[in-house]
Amino acid sequence: MPASINTPLIESLLVPQMFIFGCVFLRFTGLLLALPVFSEYLPVRVRMVFQFFLSVFVLQTLDNQPTINPTLPNLFLTGVSEFMLGLVLGLFVQILLSIYMSAGQLVGMHIGLGFAGFIDPQFQEETMSTTRLVIAMSMLAFVSAGGLLHLFSGLCLSFRVLPLGRFVFSEHTGLTLYEPLLQSFKMGVVLAMPVIAAILIMQGLLGMMSRAVSEFNTLYLSFSFLLIVGIVVFVGSIPDMMKMAFDLGQGLTDRLIGFARALS
């Protein structure tokens, strides 16, 4: 006679693990959806398989997670909470990476390339060639520093700071995102400041030359001068932008954990 199967025992062991796996999967889903580099360019099937295996791996490392009453309302609210937390963490990373987009936009406007914009499929908005160049170089430095590895490492460690079901989306969440957003805008201006300062100085010199020499027509020459000076200074400032992106990639785990602690 075959041994009888204890169905209640199996359900008591499998249901909690399946619920925890689902919550982990939803947190990863929210993060990847908030990052255009994954949501736009990574096929849905590839993203789902990647999330599945990553969730299985994280599930083996989880311990001391709170016990949640497996009722339907609790399961639904916890799942929504984990998905929203993933979105918030992804938005935080996107804010950090938007520094270079802001810098590229400011550089392009000040050197006179505002008319040379095109639609960027990643952000679904008009960008400039300088923005694409800054993003490409900074992402190269970010990836070379292990930024993607640190990104997922920080997300895995976030389960220790914010266990399952402990995140509540509230006004405090928006206030916590406000400071990184403000710092991102400031850093974008700082990165573009050498080009902005050079353009302002060049405009002042051209104005003084036009006053000193009335035959000197700055209307025809100012655009060429400003474009050349802006490009030279911009190319010279690219190494500093790449260094900042490299440091961001190396310290992304600590930033994510610090942000998760601020949310808790």
Summary?
The protein has 264 residues and is mainly alpha-helical.
Polypeptide structure, described:
- With 264 residues, the chain is mainly alpha-helical.
- It has one domain (7-263).
- 78% of the residues lie in helices and 2% in strands.
- It is built from nine helices and two strands.
- It has helices at residues 7-34, 36-39, 44-61, 72-110, 129-144, 147-161, 171-212, 218-250, 252-263; strands spanning 118-120, 125-127.
- It has a two-stranded antiparallel ribbon.
- A hairpin with a 4-residue loop joins strand 1 (118-120) and strand 2.
- Helix 1 (7-34) runs parallel beside helix 4, helix 4 crosses helix 5 and helix 6 (147-161) packs parallel to helix 9.
- The radius of gyration is 25 Å and the shape is elongated.
- The N and C termini lie far apart (54 Å).
- Mean pLDDT is 79; it is low at 1-5.
What is this structure's SSE topology?
Blueprint: H1 7-34, H2 36-39, H3 44-61, H4 72-110, E1 118-120, E2 125-127, H5 129-144, H6 147-161, H7 171-212, H8 218-250, H9 252-263
Antiparallel strand pairs: 1-2
| pLDDT averaged residue by residue | 79
Share in β-strands:
under 5%
Note the total helix count. 9
Shape: elongated
Question: In whole angstroms, how far apart are the ends?
Answer: 54 Å
Spans where pLDDT lies below 50 across 5 or more residues = 1-5
Largest sheet: 2 strands, antiparallel
The computed structural class is mainly alpha
Radius of gyration (Å):
25 Å
- How much helix, percentage-wise, in residues? over 70%
Number of domains: 1
Encode the helix/strand succession as letters.
Answer: HHHHEEHHHHH
Strands in their spatial order, largest beta sheet: 1-2
- Secondary structure: number of strands: 2
